[in-house]
Amino acid sequence: MKRMTPDQAVTYIGVQHDGGLSPCPGMPNAVCSYFPKDRSHFLAPLLYEGSEDSARERIKAIHETLSGVRLLKEQGHYLHYEFKSLIMHYFDDVEFLIDSEAQTIHFRSASREGFWDFGRNARRMKKFKSLFQSIRV
User: Using the 8-state DSSP alphabet, how is residue 44 labeled?
Assistant: First the structure.
């Protein structure tokens, strides 16, 4: 497994040429819902009912309650957040891609630097999924 620099990590951010999210790097510091065959990084996507706008507002409402997070990009059905850890000041990138036809929200949460994240990205996305399912906008 090769380590990525922070500069290399951000090249994987954004909607890719195929319209989806990037795969996770070959390190244990990321999770993604877009590649089910990648068993070491895969978490199931979110399913939602209602409109894409409602789903987007739920995503944004949850992130407004969290500390150390800021929205870097919102473009159509794509959102990109940056998380800064409180103690070590590491940055993680969290992306959401809303598929309104399938009423599915795909996500990718990855550390910008380092090798291990000690499960931080997986815990973050599991907590987010729980919060998302518990609120209605």
Answer: P
User: pLDDT tens digits, the chain, 137 residues: what are they?
Assistant: 455 555 665 667 888 888 899 998 888 899 999 999 999 999 999 999 999 999 999 999 999 999 899 999 999 999 999 999 877 778 899 999 999 999 999 999 998 887 888 889 999 999 999 999 998 65
Give the pair of three-digit tokens for residue 33: 């819902």
CA separation for the pair 95, 46 (Å, rounded)? 13
Domain boundaries, the chain: 6-134
Q: What is the CATH number of domain 6-134?
A: 3.30.310.80
CB contact burial 34-73 (16+ within 10 A = b; e otherwise): bbeeeeebebebbebeeebeebbebbeebbeeeeebeeee
Q: In whole angstroms, what is the distance from residue 45 CA to residue 123 CA?
A: 14
| DSSP 8-state class, residue 133 | H
Q: CA angle at residue 44 from 41 to 49, to 5 degrees? A: 150
Note the pTM of the prediction, 2 decimals: 0.88
Say whether 40 sits in a helix, a strand or coil.
Answer: coil
